[in-house]
Amino acid sequence: MRWIDGLEAAAAEKLPEPVHRYFRQGSAGGLSVGEAVDAWSSYRFRPRVLTDVSTISTGTTVLGTPVAGPVLVAPTTMQRQADPDGEAAMSAGVAAAGSVLGVSSNAGTTYAEIGAAGAPWWLQIYVTRNRDYTRQMLDAAVAAGARAVVLTADTPVVGRKEDEGQTVWDLVQPGHLRANVDESAYSDDDLAKADDLTPDVIDWLGSSTGLPVVVKGVLRGDDARRCVDAGAAGLIVSNHGGRQLDGAIATAHALPEVVQAVAGTNTEVYVDGGIRRGEHVLTALALGARAVFVGRPALWALTVGSSPGVTRLLTDLYAEFAHALTLVGVPGPEHLTPDLIS
Ligand code: FNR
Question: Rounded to two decimals, what is the model's pTM?
């Protein structure tokens, strides 16, 4: 068995049950979370033969930042439930693998600590009803060296999870969630997620920070186009790991339409959800993604092996991707094309 395949079970032995459940679960009936992995495995390859694959390179760039492989870490909350050093430990592990870290709006570690731990990082943002609060978070992230802003656009409200009994919210310590801005001056209503956003917010985020804006949660070509027309530098095809609208289309199936909609622009398209193997990475890149993100596997790896666990997860996936590249007859990500997929 691959080390990656045993990670969730190993993490479950270490985590309190409500934390494991929170990491694992999808929203409502669990349809989208349940089919994400299989959707990647539904594609088949049309490999090339008699090509020179004696030198394989997995490296690429994401918004100009070089990465050793096209597997990045998705923004997730509650990382201090997985490791006492939370996002700082995640950052150190990502840095050692030469990748990029997405940092949640709800991070439980200060941006300064995360930045100092070494990985290039992008701030994920939920825009709140009170924009001053969002603005403070953006300013803090810029000061700590964030290289991009990732607007999560699929969360006008948080998707309902079917929980019973104790939940992660009963366990989280004060300060281990949203550690970056003092919330005491704000009401619950101020901090609720804005449910009236339009593409104009992309320009606001870009001009407030001077950073490229990536929109996360895009599943349709027409929305992709609206985001790019409004100034987005990148898009993440995502259904939030099946945690928002249950029954939302699998990202493996939504990706081609989004790629096609922004063809001819220099928009970078990324994808997340159910990516668990090098062959899934190969599929995503052949379909036009620049890179992929992994969410839950990084939480399991952080739980089980702290920073070195995260490094191993990413380097194992790069190695599998390199192996799959060799077998599909292509020496590097820049040579992948959709005709390799059927
Ligand atoms: C998430 N995700 C997420 N997304 C986001 O934009 N902001 C956030 O704070 C969080 N928090 C979060 C917590 C947990 C426990 C999970 C599992 C996920 C979604 C995440 O960024 C990503 O879209 C999915 O996790 C990708 O799917 P996989 O790789 O987990 O299958």
Answer: 0.98
Atom of ligand 1 nearest to the CA of 24: 17
What's the start-to-end Cα distance of the chain, in Å?
27
Q: What is the mean pLDDT of residues 312-317?
A: 98
Share of the chain above pLDDT 90, in %: 94
pLDDT at 164 > cutoff 90: no
In the reported structure, the alpha carbon of residue 77 is separated from the centroid of ligand 1 by a whole-number distance in angstroms of 8
| Residue 51: other Cβ atoms inside 10 A | 13
26 lines ligand 1 (CB under 6 A): no
Rg of the chain (C-alpha set): 19
Strands (E), 238-287: 268-272
Ligand 1 center–CA 229 separation, angstroms: 26
Q: Indicate the top mutation candidate among 21, 90, 240, 275 to test ligand 1's pocket, ranked by most ligand atoms within 8 A of CB.
A: 240
Question: What ipTM does this complex have?
Answer: 1.00
Gap between the Cα atoms of 83 and 35, Å rounded = 28
> Domains, the chain, ranges and CATH?
4-340 (3.20.20.70)
Residues with Cβ within 8 Å of residue 228, at least 6 apart in sequence: 235, 262, 265, 267
Residues 294 and 272: beta-carbon distance below 8 Å: yes
Tell me the C-alpha to C-alpha distance, in Å, between residue 277 and each of 190, 240, 315, 318: 41, 19, 12, 9
Q: Answer whether 75 contacts ligand 1 (Cβ < 6 A).
A: yes
Q: Is 301 in the pocket of ligand 1 (CB under 6 A)?
A: no
